[in-house]
Amino acid sequence: MPxxxxxxxxxxxxxxxxxFSLRTLVTLSSLPLFGVVAAFGLAPDTNTLDIxxxxxxxxxxxxxxxxxxxxxxxxxRESLVQAGDTLAxxxxxxxxxxxxxxxxxxxxxxxxxxxxxxxxxxxQATTTADGQLQTIRFERGDAPALTVRLQDGRYVAEDSSxxxxxxxxxxxxxxxxxxxxxxxxAGIPDKxxxxxAETFSTALDFRDDLRRGxxxxxxxxxxxxxxxxxxxxxxxxxxxxxxGKAHRAVLFRDxxxxxxxxxxxxxxxxxxxxxxxxxxxxxxxxxxxxxxHPIYGFHxxxxxxxxxxxxxxxxxxxxxxxxxxxxxxxxxxxxxxLRHSNxxxxxxxxxxxxxxxxxxxxxxxxxxVVAYVGSTGASTGPHLHYEVRIAxxxxxxxxxxxxxxxxxxxAQRARFLLQTASWSxxxxxxxxxxxxxxx
Length: 439
Ligand SMILES: [Zn+2]
Fold this sequence. Notes:
Number of domains: 3
Largest sheet: 8 strands, antiparallel
Number of strands: 29
CATH architecture of the largest domain: Roll
Bound molecules: zinc ion
Strand order of the largest sheet: 5-3-4-12-13-14-15-16
Low-confidence stretches: 1-72, 435-439
Distance between the termini: 27 Å
Structural class: mainly beta
Strand content: 35-45%
Radius of gyration: 26 Å
Mean pLDDT: 75
């Protein structure tokens, strides 16, 4: 597979620091694998979100891409160790944040090296435009240069002879039985499949809504060392066509570095609410306006949904909330009521116990374990009775449109389109390719 390395062109040079703007040559190749459309190589440190190949067709070399603006660049700063320097003072001259320096100095390999730091040796740091340290390279007298890289929030040393790359991979598939069965067949790593399931979980329930013949495409990064894949990276864009309806998501990083998934139109996919308060469960009794009550024997509405789950199963808050009630209430048994914004309330009933610290007036976060499944009150066996009420009226939790996060501010639109338009285009292209390959 053809891969290219970054070319670094001098952008501006001052005595104290040198800054480089990155220019990337991207090549593209078709892979002879089922469902695989294309993969192309990107050099390490490349800010993949900001790279926009202009066209994707069959195997071809794309023209060199220039960074769109300053914010799309990474920078290299360099300093020489002076006589009398400690590693910390040398790092401080690179304008690296004190906290980051402290973290670096507590990593084993840097601490070992700090003892033998000598004047005249070069230290090079790569930062994002907003000054976040990505990699740092220390010249050493007695060994090859040491490079320390920020990886998943930790600083990790790498052998400087290693070639690290981030490649962008695009894959598509079709559901035959399950999401994970299909992503496996398409060669999509589980981590990416999870990100995809999570991203679309506000729109789709992957346990119940999947249809045979549903299709999906994913564009994501994979980290390579010396040409071998070492770790799945991040989902950049995805499409899921469920029962003929297309759902799309693109990753967007705002000016302050906060990342989130949005529709190509800029609507946030971040969950205002989880669809279910349990991790593994099935609906044993649905929301109805009238049913025969298993204990009372007469017909009356079932104002919530019952999830079958064993006693002690963890119950999660489906949204950020304040605890309105936690105690015993009639047929509900042990009941937890959470008050959310927009007039939403959620009820969790028949609980065996509440989580520590969950009592009226306390705040809880979405996904936080707030209670445990039980069979208290009017209940025939362990299960969770879950209700969603809007302005006091019970609604079908599985059918209502749950509130999401607010859409992008107008001021962010230009940045959003710049980052995501090409991914949206590629999703459409991938879909066509996938269907053509399979039908
Ligand atoms: Zn119930």
